[in-house]
UniProtKB/TrEMBL annotation:
Species annotation: Prolixibacter bellariivorans
Catalytic activity: D-arabinose 5-phosphate + phosphoenolpyruvate + H2O = 3-deoxy-alpha-D-manno-2-octulosonate-8-phosphate + phosphate
GO molecular function annotations of the record: 3-deoxy-8-phosphooctulonate synthase activity
Main location: cytoplasm
Localization: Cytoplasm
Name under which the protein is recorded: 3-deoxy-8-phosphooctulonate synthase
The protein's annotated pathway: Carbohydrate biosynthesis; 3-deoxy-D-manno-octulosonate biosynthesis; 3-deoxy-D-manno-octulosonate from D-ribulose 5-phosphate: step 2/3; Bacterial outer membrane biogenesis; lipopolysaccharide biosynthesis
């Protein structure tokens, strides 16, 4: 199948150049968001890796109502718009309900469908109808070859500007496993494939603020596996001080560690492209 190139601003997703989707899990205070955005924009220029800034105005799948779920759509999109305008960087955020789509589409460059909701037909189709690029995350419950189903739903709405993101499969209890075969199956759709490496090391059933709620030690290994398998983009949640992050504190990467993490991956990706069949 021919490889699809999906353009996000000046970024050609699916080309031979690795791109980065990065930012805090959830929109927090303005200072935290701006510090993170400025750092990532500067780093993307330094390392010559295209950047799409990510953060969620709402995380509606938190395991307790007591946990922070974001500032809400209006305030969250206001902050994301500020980042987009100040740093001239594309923005991605997720939507959980069809009535959020229009307002989000007015601000962001990519509308993301959360993994848990990838089979929600109305959500996928209504997002696709905006004409925006759609990033569909692979549901933890879905065989990777079945991701063609939500892809077909988006296409039925006349939109083939689609990205697919792997983030692990539920195997057993409260654990995620990244099967490299998934990258193969997602690539067979012909659309660009992204690896959400930080979500893939979360431990279900354990609060994200608990250090046991994520296994950061596996991030470099998994990222290398994804690059070797031919991913087009890397999805990374990062924060100035993960221990104080309001969501996914145990799995986000500190911004101070991002440069040393990315450098070998960029070199590895260039090598993979060179010898790619």
């Amino acid at each position: 199948m021919d490889k699809k190139i999906v353009n996000v601003g000046d970024i050609a997703c699916g080309s031979d150049k690795l791109f980065l989707i990065a930012g805090p899990c959830v929109v927090e205070d303005v200072k935290t968001m701006m510090v993170t955005a400025e750092f990532l924009v500067d780093l993307s220029q330094k390392l010559n890796i295209p950047l799409i800034f990510k953060s969620s105005f709402q995380k509606d799948n938190r395991s307790s109502l007591e946990y922070y779920s974001g500032p809400g759509m209006e305030r969250g999109l206001e902050i994301l718009r500020k980042i987009k305008e100040q740093f001239q960087v594309p923005i991605i955020t997720d939507v959980h309900y069809p009535d959020q789509i229009k307002m989000a589409a007015d601000v962001v460059d990519i509308i993301q469908i959360p993994a848990y909701l990838c089979m929600q037909s109305t959500l996928v189709v209504d997002a696709a109808k905006t004409g925006k690029v759609i990033n569909i995350k692979h549901g933890q419950f879905l065989a990777p070859e079945n991701m063609i189903k939500p892809v077909e739903k988006a296409i039925s709405a006349g939109n083939d500007q689609i990205l697919l993101t792997e983030r692990g499969y539920t195997f057993g209890y409260n654990d995620l496993v990244v099967d490299p075969r998934s990258f193969y199956h997602l690539r067979q759709t012909g659309y660009p494939v992204i690896f959400d490496v930080t979500h893939s090391i979360r431990k279900y059933g354990i609060p994200s603020a608990d250090p046991a709620g994520g296994s950061r030690e596996f991030i470099p290994t998994l990222a290398r596996a994804g690059v070797a398998a031919g991913i087009d983009g890397l999805f990374l949640e990062t924060h100035p001080d993960p221990s104080r992050a309001l969501c996914d504190a145990a799995s986000q990467m500190c911004i101070d560690d991002v440069e040393s993490f990315l450098k070998p991956l960029i070199e590895f990706h260039d090598l993979e492209v060179k010898y790619r069949d």
